[in-house]
């Protein structure tokens, strides 16, 4: 697990490049207000838009998410906790009037950038 990138994944960099090309400026790995160990992947602080680029495995994609066969119970608990933390982060940000946009890593970059741009503008 320590080899898994927390930021600057291929999907995240692709989305950031597309957003930058569209003239949008943002902050990277911005701390969730009041939660020192959680970060927003791409944050538009003035507009209060938080963008998370979720990996299919780690966040339980309904299309591509899998559960390893070895140590199945431990992984089910771990991946379930990740999803619960995602929901809690969404709730916390919504309570502070932030708009949350979640993007799956397999989504086409143009479509994801379009959704983010619509939320920002």
UniProtKB/TrEMBL annotation:
Organism domain of life: Bacteria
Record field: transmembrane: none
Key words, A-Z: DNA damage, DNA repair, Endonuclease, Hydrolase, Nuclease
InterPro entries: DNA_mismatch_endonuc_vsr (IPR004603), Restrct_endonuc-II-like (IPR011335)
One Pfam family per UniProt: Vsr
Protein family according to the UniProt entry: Belongs to the Vsr family.
NCBIfam families, sorted: vsr
Protein name, entry field: T/G mismatch-specific endonuclease
